[in-house]
Fold this sequence. Notes:
Helix content: 25-40%
CATH superfamily of the largest domain: DHBP synthase
Number of helices: 12
Radius of gyration: 20 Å
CATH class of the largest domain: Alpha Beta
Structural class: alpha/beta
Number of domains: 2
Number of strands: 17
Largest sheet: 12 strands, mixed
Distance between the termini: 50 Å
Low-confidence stretches: none
Mean pLDDT: 95
CATH architecture of the largest domain: Alpha-Beta Complex
Bound molecules: threonylcarbamoyladenylate, magnesium ion
Order of helices and strands: EHEEHEHEHEEHEHEEEHEHHEHEEHEHE
Amino acid sequence: MNTKILKVDLNNIDMDSLKEAGQLISEGELVAFPTETVYGLGGDALDAKAAEKIYKAKGRPSDNPLIVHISKFEELEMISKDLPIEARKLADRFWPGPLTMIVNKNDKVPYETTGGMDTVAVRMPNHPIALELIRQSGCLIAAPSANTSGRPSPTEAKHVVGDLDGKIAMVLDGGEVGIGIESTIVDLTEDEILVLRPGYITPQMLSEVIGKEVKIDPGIIAQDDTTKPKAPGMKYKHYAPKASLVLVEGEQDNVVSKINELVQEQHKQDKRVAVIATDETRNKYKADVILNIGSRNDEDSIARHLYKILRECDELEIDSIFSESFQTPRIGNAIMNRLLKAAGHQVIQA
Length: 350
Ligand code: TXA
Ligand code: MG
């Protein structure tokens, strides 16, 4: 299949391109598109065959459900049942935005889209291209992240093309995304409201709106197999760079000395080493490659560059990577959740 790549200017959206993309979705084809979190791989959410195509293009296990993207609240009502009051409250506050809600599905949603589950994940993305694509297609759009299963989520169209060229009908290139990590997932189907995947919107922000405590799913904090995560996707082995990745935690100065020590040890064994550093520390390391992830004064910049840096690690000829830790004040949990998985939980205290 020839994948058509169309550049779209966010500030001046070309409607002909969006109509063409929407038409493809309505015909059961797949189109990758930007959202504010990461690029999504979209297909008609209510068409079982389109959902199957998505799993195939990504190489994704078909028991890992997709997120349904909508452009207005009524579309959530249209595909759910027993919608709790919290859904309306959270939508009023956070939609369009990086929050996915799990609710009970009704018969309109095929089991192919929900990986066999009776619940469905729904999100209204805060991105003009994504919203216009949903409207133009006349469909609700099922969209997982637009990467090959097991690779980091794409934050630029070129990442999507690298993974899916020739496998999907179209890529809408709307430039780099703004947030860079996937949406927060909150489960509203149980008495206890749980965050199944941490993201830009924190449990505290959710608690404030619904007036009761929101916890993080114990299954995603556990490092052993005793407690399974509730979101099927969180149990899969995630992306790990080809080179070994080790995180170093502690006070900044101690981390810098520790990493430099570790680099030296590797150099004695003739290894090539990369360090993931920040604006504040990048000049303090002596390694073969320094990857600057962003600034500690701007934690959003760290989230935004995370996946791009992890992809770069594979393009470099290196043997080991040492990274600082990013337990930043607000979205540190979300950043570290991804980074710890990439490192296979290898952490050294400085
Ligand atoms: O930011 C995002 O959420 C991006 C953009 C494209 O919107 N999408 C995304 O989709 O990250 P994906 O498929 O890569 O991740 C969806 C996650 C998976 O971990 C999946 O298991 C979980 O959501 N999920 C989907 N439906 C669910 C359900 N009914 N119950 C529990 N978890 C569900
Ligand atoms: Mg994904």
